[in-house]
């Protein structure tokens, strides 16, 4: 059925949207005065019980666009044991945890039971929450199905079903799980469906599972967001050369660098770069799929609160995270999939602030940079000459003596691990962090079942690639939707 086109209305206030008094009071306390376009467009329909197809990405206020109406609607009725009243599916644990935070913030005047079902956390505690009766169940698809298969969960009481970040779910191979989950929930439910983009597979899913949805589409934050200065930086292809160049860039930014996310393509590179930065006495942390949920959340919290300056991350781990004020993004590796570039640099320059994005480029990355240029519709701006100006020294086999690129006051240290000045508490803390990370990695390796949101399934191409430390992106597995011809 064709979706009803709806124009988002920006001039509305929150009190025009039909939200309950309790929700309005929490919104006022959160300091929000005006709904964002996705909120203005979606909330009235969601409260009216209609299906909504929201085309919006993280950063547009879309979380509140489903959390606020859900809270309003949940004020009537009670949860029963093992029968959640609402279900929200999220592609990653971090996004699921962020949605939970939103329920806590906006639901402070409600007494709702919220259960979070994500991987990397024990089943027992989650089962206890289900047993008590959940008003709101927030889950990643694999862990949800695990609970279902253990017989601890019935989805027949779900009245409101939210699928968030649907295109990301597609990338991660979750669509078959979502189809299965959709069929476990009563047909009479209300479905709120969000996706940043609408590839054919997602359109098909909405046609199959939404009923006469109201379509609310908000503008994508411009890929060429003028508040982000994007620069490409040529560098040698050897890992040590890339790390040295990165340190040079960080040092050169001086005090203008408040905090930064540094993206790598591989999980193994995240760990190596994190260690290297710590050895060079940078204030760094890491976020990748090998860390357990608690460690990931703690790392993120420290970064958010400004206790940690540099966060080295993989795409999957960092996807959609709401970190409002990041001054810099560094792409240690050029993303293979050019859309990832847009997502990555979109971590900075948020909410009208200015941001800096630097991308390290080796000779082998030329075609990926060309693809990014095409996607963002502009020629790459090179910091100090394009790839044709690479010198032999840049691509030398041997690491030149003394070239660590340090300009700041920190001590020299090699990537091979020589560690000077071990007396300081900060250094000890970082060394312990590395040790803890190693122990944790070993434990996780030993117990693969505790690894992620879901068991390995055939369709998990992208996710498996990250777990295998191989390249994230499409690689040889171009998804079917990319091969479908686009008319016009
Ligand atoms: P989201 O797109 O849901 O990740 O939200 C992005 C950010 O916008 C979060 O930090 C929210 O707290 C914030 N936010 C949500 N709604 C509003 C609003 N109406 N006015 C200002 N900020 C908002």
UniProtKB/TrEMBL annotation:
<keyword id="KW-0547">Nucleotide-binding</keyword>
<dbReference type="Pfam" id="PF00271">
    <property type="entry name" value="Helicase_C"/>
</dbReference>
<dbReference type="InterPro" id="IPR027417">
    <property type="entry name" value="P-loop_NTPase"/>
</dbReference>
<comment type="similarity">
    <text>Belongs to the DEAD box helicase family.</text>
</comment>
<keyword id="KW-0067">ATP-binding</keyword>
<feature type="region of interest" description="Disordered">
    <location>
        <begin position="385"/>
        <end position="478"/>
    </location>
</feature>
<dbReference type="GO" id="GO:0016787">
    <property type="term" value="F:hydrolase activity"/>
</dbReference>
<feature type="short sequence motif" description="Q motif">
    <location>
        <begin position="12"/>
        <end position="40"/>
    </location>
</feature>
<keyword id="KW-0378">Hydrolase</keyword>
<feature type="compositionally biased region" description="Basic and acidic residues">
    <location>
        <begin position="410"/>
        <end position="454"/>
    </location>
</feature>
<feature type="domain" description="Helicase C-terminal">
    <location>
        <begin position="249"/>
        <end position="391"/>
    </location>
</feature>
<dbReference type="InterPro" id="IPR000629">
    <property type="entry name" value="RNA-helicase_DEAD-box_CS"/>
</dbReference>
<dbReference type="InterPro" id="IPR044742">
    <property type="entry name" value="DEAD/DEAH_RhlB"/>
</dbReference>
<dbReference type="GO" id="GO:0042255">
    <property type="term" value="P:ribosome assembly"/>
</dbReference>
<keyword id="KW-0963">Cytoplasm</keyword>
<dbReference type="InterPro" id="IPR011545">
    <property type="entry name" value="DEAD/DEAH_box_helicase_dom"/>
</dbReference>
<dbReference type="GO" id="GO:0003724">
    <property type="term" value="F:RNA helicase activity"/>
</dbReference>
<dbReference type="InterPro" id="IPR001650">
    <property type="entry name" value="Helicase_C-like"/>
</dbReference>
<dbReference type="GO" id="GO:0005524">
    <property type="term" value="F:ATP binding"/>
</dbReference>
<protein>
    <recommendedName>
        <fullName>DEAD-box ATP-dependent RNA helicase RhpA</fullName>
        <ecNumber>3.6.4.13</ecNumber>
    </recommendedName>
</protein>
<dbReference type="InterPro" id="IPR014014">
    <property type="entry name" value="RNA_helicase_DEAD_Q_motif"/>
</dbReference>
<keyword id="KW-0347">Helicase</keyword>
<dbReference type="GO" id="GO:0009266">
    <property type="term" value="P:response to temperature stimulus"/>
</dbReference>
<dbReference type="GO" id="GO:0003676">
    <property type="term" value="F:nucleic acid binding"/>
</dbReference>
<dbReference type="GO" id="GO:0005829">
    <property type="term" value="C:cytosol"/>
</dbReference>
<dbReference type="InterPro" id="IPR014001">
    <property type="entry name" value="Helicase_ATP-bd"/>
</dbReference>
<feature type="domain" description="DEAD-box RNA helicase Q">
    <location>
        <begin position="12"/>
        <end position="40"/>
    </location>
</feature>
<dbReference type="Pfam" id="PF00270">
    <property type="entry name" value="DEAD"/>
</dbReference>
<dbReference type="InterPro" id="IPR050079">
    <property type="entry name" value="DEAD_box_RNA_helicase"/>
</dbReference>
<feature type="domain" description="Helicase ATP-binding">
    <location>
        <begin position="43"/>
        <end position="216"/>
    </location>
</feature>
């Amino acid at each position: 059925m064709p979706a009803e086109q709806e124009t988002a209305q920006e001039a509305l206030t929150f009190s025009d949207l039909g939200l309950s008094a309790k929700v309005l009071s929490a919104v006022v306390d959160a300091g929000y005065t005006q709904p964002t376009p996705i909120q203005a467009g979606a909330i009235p329909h969601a409260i009216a019980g209609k299906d909504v197809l929201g085309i919006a990405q993280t950063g547009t206020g879309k979380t509140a666009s489903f959390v606020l109406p859900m809270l309003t609607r949940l004020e009537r009725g009670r949860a029963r044991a093992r029968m959640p009243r609402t279900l929200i599916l999220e592609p990653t644990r971090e996004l699921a945890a962020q949605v939970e935070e939103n329920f806590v913030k906006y639901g402070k005047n409600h007494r709702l039971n919220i259960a979070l079902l994500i991987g990397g956390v024990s089943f027992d505690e989650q089962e206890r929450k289900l047993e008590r009766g959940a008003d709101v169940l927030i889950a990643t698809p694999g862990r949800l199905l695990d609970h279902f298969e253990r017989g601890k969960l019935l989805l027949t009481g779900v009245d409101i079903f939210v699928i968030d970040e649907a295109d990301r779910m597609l990338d991660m191979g979750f669509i078959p799980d979502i189809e299965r989950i959709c069929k476990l929930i009563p047909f009479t439910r209300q479905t709120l469906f969000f996706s940043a983009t609408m590839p054919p597979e997602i359109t098909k899913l909405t046609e199959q599972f939404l009923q006469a949805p109201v379509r609310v589409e908000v503008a994508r934050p411009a890929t060429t967001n003028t508040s982000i200065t994007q620069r490409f930086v040529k560098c040698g292809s050897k890992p040590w050369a890339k790390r040295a160049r990165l340190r040079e860039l960080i040092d050169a930014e001086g005090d203008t660098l408040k905090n930064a996310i540094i993206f790598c393509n591989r999980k193994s590179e995240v760990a190596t770069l994190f260690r290297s930065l710590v050895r060079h006495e940078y204030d760094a942390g890491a976020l990748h799929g090998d860390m357990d949920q608690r460690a990931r959340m703690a790392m993120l919290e420290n970064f958010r609160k400004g206790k940690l300056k540099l966060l080295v991350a993989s795409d999957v781990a960092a996807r959609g995270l709401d970190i409002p004020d990041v001054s810099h993004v560094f792409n240690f590796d050029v993303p293979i999939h050019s859309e990832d570039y847009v997502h990555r640099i979109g971590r900075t320059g948020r909410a009208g602030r200015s941001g800096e994005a630097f991308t390290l480029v080796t000779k082998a990355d030329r075609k990926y940079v060309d693809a990014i240029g095409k996607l963002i519709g502009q020629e790459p701006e090179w910091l100090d000459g394009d790839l044709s100006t690479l010198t032999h020294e840049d691509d030398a086999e041997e690491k030149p003596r003394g070239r660590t690129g340090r300009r700041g006051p920190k001590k020299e240290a090699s990537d091979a691990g020589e560690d000077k000045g071990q007396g300081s508490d900060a250094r000890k803390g970082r060394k312990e962090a590395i040790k803890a990370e190693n122990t944790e990695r070993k434990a996780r390796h030993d117990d693969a079942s505790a690894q992620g949101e879901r068991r390995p399934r055939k369709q998990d191409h992208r996710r498996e690639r990250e777990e295998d430390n191989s390249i994230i992106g499409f690689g040889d597995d171009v998804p079917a939707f990319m091969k479908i011809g686009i008319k016009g």
